[in-house]
Structures are given as structure tokens and as C-alpha cells.
Amino acid sequence: MNRLLKGTLLLTLLAALWGCTEEQQNRISRVGVSWLEGDYQVTYAVDGHTKSWQVIGGKVTSEAAKGYYYFWATDGGKRFYVQTPIDRTYIEELP
User: Which own/partner pairs from 65-73 qualify as long-range (CB within 8 Å, at least 24 positions apart)?
Assistant: First the structure.
């Protein structure tokens, strides 16, 4: 009976995933997103030019499959959303 129940649950789960829309599948895939929470200096560097932001009491989110970091930065008391490529971005934890 236990084997039959497990098989039924597995088939139900597979059928539910098969019937998901693309948006629903994207939401499920975002479960694997990783993040750092705290205070950070995030620096984007390319061809000798750099741009830095501070993330204070926030999160730096990364999604390797898309190749970007996402975060809310603070500059002059204002907060704004930033997206930078992972391969050209450096993150340092602030003391």
C-alpha cells in the first residue's frame, strides 16, 4: 500500500508540473536562487572603468543560470535597483 501511495503522489506531482505554464515553471526555478544578506560593497569593473554601490542591510541575489547579480543599492540616501553581470562584479563584505 505504501508503494502504491508513493507512486500515486509521484505521478500527481509530474502531471502538475507538466501542466504548469511557463511563468509557473519560472517561479519554481527561482527557488534555487541564492543570496547574501548584510552590508556589502558591490563593484562592477570592465575595461578599466569601475562603478561601486553599497548594499546596507539588504540582499545581493544571484542567479547563475541568468548570469546576473540583483540588488537594491543605497546612494545619497536613495535606494535603487541594480543588475550587474556576475563575471565582471566583485562583492566585498563591509565591516
Answer: 65/29, 69/42, 71/40, 71/42, 73/42
Residues 44/50, Cβ–Cβ less than 8 Å: yes
Residue 73 and residue 84 share a domain: yes
- In this prediction the pTM is 0.61
CA atoms within 13 A on the CB side of 67: 3
Verify that 9 and 44 share a domain, yes or no: no
24: containing domain: 1-32
- List the chain residues with pLDDT less than 50: 1, 32
Q: How many CA atoms lie within 13 A of 70 on its CB side?
A: 9
